[in-house]
Structures are given as C-alpha cells and as structure tokens.
Automatic annotation (TrEMBL):
It is a multi-pass membrane protein. This is MFS transporter. PANTHER family: PROTEIN SPINSTER, SPINSTER. It is found in: Membrane. InterPro entries: MFS, MFS_dom, MFS_spinster-like, MFS_trans_sf. CDD domains: MFS. Keywords: Membrane, Transmembrane, Transmembrane helix, Transport. GO terms for cellular component: membrane. One of its GO terms (molecular function) is transmembrane transporter activity. The keyword Ribonucleoprotein does not apply. Residues 8-403 form the Major facilitator superfamily (MFS) profile domain. Pfam families: MFS_1 (PF07690). The keyword Transmembrane applies.
C-alpha cells in the first residue's frame, strides 16, 4: 500500500528518526570513550566530525543523481549502509582509527537518507504546502538526533556502549523495510530541460536567493552541529558545577535529549513565522539571538541554576528556529529541474561546516586546558557564535527578493 500526502510526510519523518538512532551515539558517549580509548578532545572532535565528512563527500553525488532518477533506490541502499556501519562500529571498533572508518561510512548512509529523503518527499508532493512539509521533515532531523542521544545514554547504562550502536543499526534496517513497503517507485518522466553535466553546480551558484539560504544554512549548521557534538560532555561539566542537577536524578544524556527535542516545535514554528513576516528578516533575527547566547553560554556553567536552565532552554529553541526556514527557502528558490543539485550543494556546504565545527570545538577545548576548565568551554562556544553571525551578513548581501 503506497502512501501519499500527509501520510507520506509522516512516514518519511518516522523513517528519518529511526534511521538516525545511530546518529549521535558517539558524541553522546564522548565521556565514555575518552577514558576507554585515551582520546584527546581533538581526537574526539575528529570522530564526531568525520561522520559529517562522510556525508559531505557523498551528498553531491547522491542528491544530484536524484535529478535524473527516482530517489527511492538511493534511499534504500543508504539505509542498508547506515545500518551496517553502526553494526560494524558495535562489533569491530576498538580505538580512534576504527571508529573513524565506521563513523565515516555512517555519514555516507546519512547523506543518502536525509537530503535524498527530502527529494524523495518533494518529488511526490504538490507544490502547494511543500514549504510546510519541508519544514516538518527537516525538524525531524532534530528529533532523530535527540532520540539518538537518549538511546545512547539509556542503552549504555543498561547493556554497554556496543548495544547502543546495535540499536542504531536496527533503526536503519526498519527504515529500509518501511520504505520498501509503503513508498511506490515513481514512473520515469521526461526531463523539463536538457541538463549540462550531472554535477555542474554553476546554474545553482547563479541562483542568488537559493545560494543565500545555502550559505546561511552552512553558518547555522556550524553552530548547531558543534553544539550537538559536545552538548553531553558540556553537561557533564555543568553537573560537576551544579550538584542540584545530579541530586535531582537527571543524567546528562537525559537533559541533552530534552534540550534537543525543543528543536521540533522551534523549527516548525520558526518556518511559519518566517513565512508570515519575511524569511530573510526572521532567520537573521534567530541567528543573532542564538549567536549572542553562544558567546556567553560556556562561561556561565557555574551561574545560578535557574539562570543556566533558562539560557539553555532559550538556546535550544533559537538554535533550531531557523533550520526549517533556511532549507525551505532554498527548496522554494531552486529551479525545478535543478532542485536536486540545489539540495546537494545545500547539504554539501552545510554538512561540510558540520564536519569542521566539532573538530574546531575540540581543538579549542584542548588549547584552553581541557573539559575541566570553564574558560575552555567559554571560548569553544564563542567560536560557534562567531560562525553563525556570518549568516545574517550573507542573507543581507544575497537574498533581496521580497520574502525570499
């Protein structure tokens, strides 16, 4: 039984969340792996970031090919690869280099499911309502990352870290089966225009509104993925400064899950606000707000608990409020025959920043004296804030067409 309309949107949101159960397993368990494998902060940053290096290497090829063939086949193969990569980590990873290999392969699997899944969805939806569907779908990336953090913490506490990766593998395999059963292949259809080379991004680069949202997305991902990669480790440091948190029975992974789950309503609501009041203006305000908090967040781990919690909650909302609006802006601004190439460049630049920011964060931590030093956390978070501040500048220069 093939699903259509909002049922299809719901299905692909579900498969995205299931397929991402292994997404944040390593970052959530950095406090476990650092003593276990004697990893420095820089090495932990490499393993966290190399996942998105795999994504960045594969996404231009996989997503651009969806302009020429149905995205469904690529999606299914990528679910399989993602599951095998997580299973390989569970069974064979024993240190820095083996972890790098399996996380790189996992990132390739994500490249063929997240943005390819968005193309699979947009190809099967009418133009009306597409922006809202895109925002809902992209918001579920945050849900997937959140539940991955939660599963990693809970499963590791019950059965050990390897079983946390097994759970991630099972999620990918279930996603594969759901798409096989419920998503019908598209019938071949003639192209609207004879394309030049398959990977010719020059027409995409000439589309200034789409390029503005793509570069803005890279600034957003720089901040977001650095935050996600090091959030649990930061909360371990916060717990040491705030005994009341530990006394309340919370674990760092549970608090991180709560903060990340705020991304779903924030991203959907952010897109609605941007659609109503001007996408460029609203996205810029969200970026300025989240970047301003990042400049101070690392320095206030020992602040009064009520203040710290309030800042974290607001940051958890603001850091995701522009995500759906940026991706929807790029999809809407893209030429229909170049939508796959536009999304490929969008993902390439965005997740390229997502590869670099966890690594840069780890380097700053090492230079600042390590995870036990408040100044090190302060400077590392400030680096994320400075990066996201480039987003409003880019949007001001390139996106000047009405609500674009």
């Amino acid at each position: 039984m093939a699903l259509t309309g909002w049922r299809l949107v719901a299905l692909l949101c579900l498969t995205q969340v299931l397929g991402m159960l292994g997404n944040a397993t390593f970052p959530a368990l950095i406090p476990v792996f650092q003593p276990l494998w004697a990893l420095s902060n820089t090495e932990a940053g490499w393993v966290s970031g190399v996942y998105y290096a795999g994504y960045t290497a594969a996404v231009p090829v996989l997503v651009t090919l969806t302009d020429r063939q149905d995205a469904r086949g690529i999606y299914l193969l990528s679910c399989l690869l993602g599951g095998l990569a997580a299973l390989g980590f569970a069974l064979l990873a024993s240190g820095f280099w083996t972890a790098m290999v399996f996380r790189f392969l996992g990132g390739i699997g994500l490249a063929g499911t997240y943005m390819v899944g968005l193309k699979l969805l947009s190809d099967r939806l009418p133009e009306q309502g597409r922006a809202r569907s895109v925002a809902i779908y992209t918001a579920h990336f945050g849900i997937g990352a959140s539940l991955s953090v939660f599963a990693a913490g809970e499963v590791t506490a019950l059965a050990g870290w390897s079983w946390a990766f097994v759970v991630g593998a099972l999620g990918s395999f279930v996603s594969l089966l759901l798409v096989v059963v419920f998503v019908r292949p598209l019938a071949p259809r003639p192209r609207r225009a004879a394309p030049t080379a398959v990977f010719d991004f020059r027409p995409v680069l000439r589309n200034r509104p789409a390029l503005a949202y793509t570069l803005g997305y890279a600034a957003h991902i720089w901040e977001l993925f650095g935050f996600r990669a090091w959030l649990v480790a930061f909360l371990v440091f916060v717990f040491a400064q705030q005994p009341a948190l530990a006394a309340g029975g919370w674990s760092p992974t549970q608090v991180a899950t709560l903060l990340l789950l705020l991304g779903l309503p924030a991203s959907i609501l952010g897109n609605e606000i941007a659609t109503a009041f001007g996408r460029r203006r609203i996205v810029s305000l969200f970026m300025i707000g989240s970047g301003g908090i990042a400049l101070v967040l690392g320095f206030i781990a020992g602040a009064p608990l009520w203040l710290l919690v309030a800042v974290l909650l607001v940051y958890g909302c603001l850091i995701m409020a522009d995500s759906g609006a940026l991706t929807a802006g790029a999809v809407i601004a893209a030429a229909p025959e170049r939508r796959g190439a536009t999304m490929a460049l969008h993902a390439l630049l965005g997740f390229g920043a997502g590869f670099l920011s966890p690594l840069a964060f780890g380097v700053v931590l090492d230079l600042g004296g390590g995870v036990d030093q408040g100044l090190a956390w302060g400077f590392a978070f400030a680096l994320l804030g400075l990066g996201v501040f480039t987003g409003p500048l880019i949007l001001a220069l390139l996106a000047r067409r009405g609500n674009a």
